[in-house]
Amino acid sequence: MLRYTAFSTSPAGGNPAGVVLDATGLDDSDMLAIAADLGYSESAFLTAPPEGLGGQEGRAYSIRYFSPRAEVPFCGHATVATAVALAERRGPGELVFATRAGIVPVVVTEEGGTLRATLTSVEPQIEEIADADLAEALAALDWPAADLDPAFPPRIAFAGARHLVLAAATRARLTDLAYDFERLEALMHRLDLTTTQLVWRESATVFHVRDPFPVGGVVEDPATGAAAAAFGAYARELGLVPEDTVLTLHQGEDLGRPGELTVTLREGDPRVRVGGAGTRIGPRAGHDGAAGPGNLAAKRK
């Protein structure tokens, strides 16, 4: 089990992930137990690629992601962490991952001694949320509807996993997050959501985000690549940003694990690219900020 953080150049920032480069012989219960024991929001497990995947030999894989409680179809930060781990051993370049959500290409580059990985999402989808479900989400968060930014309508966005996007009208609203863990978890299970993507717009291309992740047994994800991809698709679909643009998402500041995610949208290509730095962390680093099962009670409302 390797430990890497994604979307930060510092082991103390970003989102930690476990990485198993050869999970051959592990069954579902093994992988879940390993992820639960580590306690990070997700861990990634690599096996041989499916036949016909393509890609260079040694640079194509099947990948699965487990939170401390369950398997998830796609995880952006664990993909970035895994790509950086592979690049340290096999050099920068192109990788291809077969995920439960679809095929995800990744490009790893080296800039001034720092490895950066950029994934390309599966094709996204955006859907409306029912009024009753929105009311329940706001009640679980203890957010009055008046505290939402009217320029950003609530939606469910998918780019490998489903996320509810809610925009706060102020940074103070985003900062004040103390939600009903069980109530939000129940709603998210019913709507098949992976996280709730809470955002605040600082400028035309800069956003601050937070991601409650109760369905994974984690109070809050420090940096969420899958949600960043979903948000990029959402913002473009609703005309909130240009079709061809680069967005910067800051996440983890409120947890003391600052990270930065780059979201790139290209005109004519519905997919979303999410990139960031990654670095290896020590065997005990990262637990205090990862909000694993051991400290859920301290962070529940």
TrEMBL record:
- Which Pfam family, giving just one, matches this sequence? PhzC-PhzF
Keyword Isomerase in the entry? The reply is: yes
Organism domain of life:
Bacteria
Any one of the GO CC terms: cytoplasm
Enzyme active site? 42
**Cross-referenced SUPFAM superfamilies:** Diaminopimelate epimerase-like (SSF54506)
InterPro entries on file: Phenazine_PhzF-like (IPR003719)
Keywords (alphabetical) are: Isomerase
One Gene Ontology term of the molecular function aspect: isomerase activity
Q: What are the start and end residues of every segment in region (Disordered)?
A: 272-301
The family note in this entry says: Belongs to the PhzF family.
In Swiss-Prot or TrEMBL terms, this protein is called: Oxidoreductase
